[in-house]
């Protein structure tokens, strides 16, 4: 089978989780404030704006520091962090996830070129399938390697990503797919490290939860703004090597 297969992360390149993470942050602070009031304390909470919050996340500032800058101290920070991990995967918050602008157009382009897209994510497969169904995108995905643990995506451990990608590569190879021109596309250091560990080219996209300058330090093969740009680059490559597959 000569079709190109690419491996792609879900949160970041395809799903925009920034609204969910920001809403989780605000709800976490509101909860700590309400708990404080029950104990007769009035906490002086300062809500960061969405863009301040997201800039901090993109530059990998610890959640503890973000909580501190939002006016929390000591035990209130611990209570906030615990509440955030409790609620971040609730259905009402998951509904805030959106398709990244032009990600659909990018996936359509790959589909036309016969490029297979295999998702490698730390999200549970059923959450991903639900999102793809909600946004009518299931046609775009050839296979899916997820993580059963519901809190794994928020933690984003590189070792988990490497494990998932290793499994995905081994299974795709067993099924006879040619992975010589494969890419790993993702928005965090975990994706770059996974691609590098398994010897495939990496594309870091800067539309997700890490900044361009942060990602640059991990030396991805390509550093691009988003999935759409990555898909255009891939289309050029496919057109050069398999002129008959693309219009
Ligand atoms: Mg991601």
Q: What is the compact description of this entry?
A:
The protein has 247 residues and is α/β, with parallel strands linked by helices.
Brief descriptors of the model:
247 residues; alpha/beta; 6-stranded parallel sheet; two-stranded antiparallel ribbon; 12 helices; binds magnesium ion
Write structural notes for this entry.
The protein has 247 residues and is an alpha/beta fold. The protein has 2 domains: 5-17 and 98-241, HAD superfamily/HAD-like (Rossmann fold, 3-Layer(aba) Sandwich), CATH 3.40.50; 18-94. Helices cover 51% and strands 11% of the residues. The protein has helices at residues 18-38, 50-58, 63-69, 74-87, 91-94, 103-112, 125-134, 152-155, 158-174, 189-197, 212-216, 227-241; strands spanning 5-8, 15-16, 98-99, 116-120, 143-145, 183-186, 201-205, 222-224. Strands 5-4-1-6-7-8 form a 6-stranded parallel β-sheet, sandwiched between helices. Strands 2-3 form a two-stranded antiparallel ribbon. Helix 6 (103-112) packs parallel to helix 12. The longest helix has 21 residues, at 18-38. The protein is elongated, with a radius of gyration of 19 Å. Magnesium ion (MG) binds at residues 9, 11-12, 186-188, 208.
